[in-house]
Amino acid sequence: MSQSSNTEVPSAVPAKPSRNTLMIVFMTVLIDLIGFGLIIPIQALYAKEFGARPALITLLGASYSLMQFLFMPMWGRISDRIGRRPVILMSVAIGGIGYLLFGFAGSIPVLFLSRMLAGFGNANIGVAQAIVADTTTAEQRARGMGLIGAAFGIGFVVGPAIGGVLGQISLATPAYAAAGLAAVNWGLAWFLLPETRRKDAAPTARRLIPLDALKVALRDGTMARLLLLSFVVTAGFSAMEQVFSLFIERIWVPEALSPLVAVQIAAHKHAAMLTTYAMITVGVTMVLVQGGLIGPLARRFGEIKLVRVGPIVMALGLLSLPLVGDSGSFALLLGSSVLLAVGSGMTTPALTSLLSRSAHADQQGAMLGLGQSMSALGRVAGPAMAGLMFEFSIGLPFLVGGTLTALAALVAFGISGHVGANMRDPTAHELRSREP
Length: 436
What we know:
CATH topology: Growth Hormone, Chain: A
CATH class: Mainly Alpha
Order of helices and strands: HHHHHHHHHHHHHHHHH
Helix content: over 70%
Largest sheet: none
């Protein structure tokens, strides 16, 4: 970047972080996640109507995340080129079409197509995070990213709760409601969301897939560890998430194995309601952690300590689930859910903030998109393996996920205490090298 560009005032960014913009982004992500949450209680039942077994059901969730893995970097890079706002508008519209198709699906192939289309459209979280990075200082970034995390938590509270109720009308009704929310979301972004990308920030490469950002990350030990953590932690959590309702049904709703269709339908509804209770517990806990505690925790202990402790707490929650299943106590299941949510709530926003601080200002969208893409890859690998492991042993997905998450905590101890210093200030390394 030329010297003159360093002194140019970015006209697209407010002089101070815009709280209004952060709240608009929060609402956009929240409505998006509520629409996603609407599908959670009914997806397994909907797939079962077409004869899907557990391995195929979890692959349905993996197909959604596969599209996010493939296209999150693309959306991030496009937002670096043309701006954040048009990308949000395009992606929300595409996701809404996917939800609508889900409601009309009449076969397993169409069901997969609808989830893949929704995943393509909803691969915009990295762009929302880039807006947060555009409008916050480094010190405020963890709290800003925590707002997005809180939107995830609220989405997991409100979405499944509403989806469970609407599912009593028909299994397709939550999908139609999600499509309607996408339309509302598009209108909100059209009228209220401003452009935040710096007008003087140019893309660093011509490729839509940021291979340049990946090369930078792999050369930097800290970035590589952050991306690895994003993958492993997300894989462990998503593996649990995709088989959670099946696990609950197997332990607490044994009548689901009845040969009577009417009994099976009633059992599925009971299992869906129990799953909703557990997901609400997870969501409320994540809202409390990411919406209110993450800022003070980051200031008190630092983000690096959070990404070291968070995976350990998650691992304890995952490893406890088979024991909880053996005990037959649903209250203990809710306790394990709290552990999982606390660990995830500590880890995710801190990881995102550290990754953001490790990137150049004009690579925010690409690098955050890459980080989200690694998380999406975890949401592909976790469910893809979880269904097969569940068919072998219902506790195996939790044992494997917990073990890998515990090992990820060891990786976090290799993260440097000077994250982002070289990337945010090109002279920092040179100045430090001259110190005696």
